[in-house]
Amino acid sequence: MFSKSKTNEPDPRKQATPEAAKVSDTATYPAAKQEVAPAREGAAKIKPPVSTLSTDLHVKGNIKTTGDILVEGQVEGDIRAHLLTLGESATVKGEVIADDVVVNGRVIGRVRGLKVRLTSTARVEGDIVHKTIAIESGAHFEGSVQRQDDPLSTTGNRPSAAAAVPPQQQTAVRTS
Fold first, then answer.
1. DSSP of the chain
2. pLDDT tens digit string along 55-106?
């Protein structure tokens, strides 16, 4: 029924050459071929690894990326990403905007995403604007929920206070 095959053993008739090694590497690791090949418009891009902000990291300022972020530390500012995952120890004070948002930690501010998921350990104090949402039992949420077909668009957002004040009367205000 089963036979022992020697397909994994090298063929002694074939000589190991650098060219054969390149072919072997690109067959096993497709990324190796993409790195060697010159960049062409329309070519598939290699997805970068997830950026991680560890528990001992405290960021003051905005974060913007087209990639994925895993936050375990504290962020005082807005975060914009493709996929944003907030770990259980994470605290974000600011607006969170991503295609996919998974909240395991705490957010004090608005959450905007195509898909928003609040896990049982999530704590959100602010409004959620979404296309689809999932809230697990045990999640803590204080705010309003609004469904929009395009929650990532900047139109339809609440008007900023600066827009109502003429430029000559605007001043920088820092609150703690």
1. ------TTSPPTTS---HHHHHHHHHHH-HHHHHHHSPP-TTPPPPPPPPEEE-TT-EEES-EE-SSEEEE-SEEES-EEEEEEEE-TT-EEES-EEEEEEEESSEEES-EEEEEEEE-TT-EEES-EEEEEEEE-TT-EEES-EEE-S-TTSSTTSPPPHHHHS-GGG-------
2. 999 999 999 999 999 999 999 999 999 999 999 999 999 999 999 999 999 9
